[in-house]
Amino acid sequence: MGNLNRLAAAAALSLLAVPAAAQPSLVRGVPLAADSTPSGAPADFCRPLLTGRGPPPVWTIVNDASAMQGRAVTEATRDRNDNRIALCLTNAPAVRNVDVTVRFRPIGGRIDQSGGIAVRVIDENHYYLVRASPLDNTVRLLRVVGGVAAQIGAREVSVTQGDWHSLRLRATSERFEVFLDSARLFEALDGTINLPGRIALATRSDGATHFETLAVIALD
Questions:
Q1: SS3 per residue for the chain
Q2: Segment 113-153, tens digit of pLDDT
Q3: pLDDT for 25-35, tens place per residue?
Q4: What is the CATH number of the domain that holds 191?
């Protein structure tokens, strides 16, 4: 098992600490690239999607000495369109109810520095998104419908630039629970998108964010 696959497996094992009442039918570490993919090459296990304006996203493998195995995935265009969300659609199966955790490190960006997870991704214009940003030290939960994002929950909390963080979203029917670094921040209710959808990594505008693990618990 190679670097990013090994990281994904480790993330999946970490989610087994979920209380027994919430134990899933499926726990998966989701790889973001093949083990043999070199630094600078595309993240071949996730597909770029774009919400809003700007050039198509380019997700690549990069070296990162602070990562657990020295590699990470990042969106490389650094485009400064404010109305731009770059998604990396993973190979995780489509689900409605899910508990997903990503490990990310914000490293730069003038307009934005957030790292996020999108769930129930129907297409590039319809999904839920949770993102954490060190620029305003806020974690936000958004509903994206018709390409327009609307906030449905938020919490101010320290999100330090340059450090690795763990962002978790648990979506069950109309209920969404958000966690950062194992701390439960808030919950929100919304029933607009209540269909199975895919899971994606997400950044906004010119955010330079590294992602190294993604773990998924299917709750359907």
A1: CCHHHHHHHHHHHHHHHCCHHHCCCEEEECCCCCCCCCCCCECCCEEEEEEECCCCCCEEEEECCCCCCCEEEEECCCCCCCCEEEEEEECCCCECCEEEEEEEEEEECCCCCCEEEEEEEEECCEEEEEEEECCCCEEEEEEEECCEEEEEEEEECCCCCCCCEEEEEEEECCEEEEEECCEEEEEEECCCCCCCEEEEEEEECCCEEEEEEEEEEECC
A2: 999 999 999 999 999 999 999 999 999 999 999 999 999 99
A3: 455 688 887 77
A4: 2.60.120.560
Q: Please say whether the beta carbons of 8 and 32 come within 8 A.
A: yes
What tokens does 56 get? 């198509």
pTM: 0.87
Domain that holds residue 33: 3-218
Angle (CA) 109-206-106 rounded to 5° is: 50
Q: How many domains does the chain have?
A: 1
Quote the distance between the C-alpha of residue 4 and its chain's center.
15
Q: Which two tokens stand for residue 174?
A: 């109309």
Report in angstroms the alpha-carbon separations of 181 from 16, 80, 103, 160: 16, 28, 9, 11
